[in-house]
Amino acid sequence: MANPEMPAEILGLRRSIDNIDAALVHLLAERFKLTRRVGELKAQGGLPPADPSREDQQIARLTGIATESGLDPAFAEAFRAFIVAEVIRHHELIAAEYEAGRREGDLPPLDTFS
Ligand SMILES: O=C(O)C(=O)C[C@]1(C(=O)O)C=C[C@@H](O)C=C1
């Protein structure tokens, strides 16, 4: 039996889905640029890669936004946690590089008088 033809409406919907997927990838790329800098500043300042209290704020805020906008809040939280787990992995790698002295170019100059 031949494949049934794809309705034109589905093809139109797929074009918009592709646009949204592209926007999500661009947004994630920009988010990771910001969190990479956060990771560098944390490594320089001796702060831990993860911040559970900040994450509690994110969860509360995003749960409200998801509920208001009709997105399953459990899905919103799973998506946030997936992204943040990757951010924390990056932060740990950055911190390990600082500790190994491989990112000293990004460190402030040594204060030899203290
Ligand atoms: O805000 C921070 O402290 C971050 O490191 C960023 C971020 C995030 O990706 O939003 C990542 C890890 C922390 O546990 C909390 C938040």
Automatic annotation (TrEMBL):
A Pfam short name: CM_2
GO molecular function: chorismate mutase activity
Enzyme class: isomerase
InterPro entries (alphabetical): Chorismate_II_sf, Chorismate_mutase-related, CM_bact, CM_dom_sf, CM_II_prokaryot
The entry's keywords: Isomerase
E.C. designation(s): 5.4.99.5
Boundaries of every Chorismate mutase domain copy: 4-95
Record keyword Zinc-finger present: no
Source domain of life: Bacteria
PANTHER family: CHORISMATE MUTASE (PTHR38041:SF1)
Name of protein: Chorismate mutase
Organism field: Xylanimonas oleitrophica
Taxonomic lineage of the native organism: Bacteria, Bacillati, Actinomycetota, Actinomycetes, Micrococcales
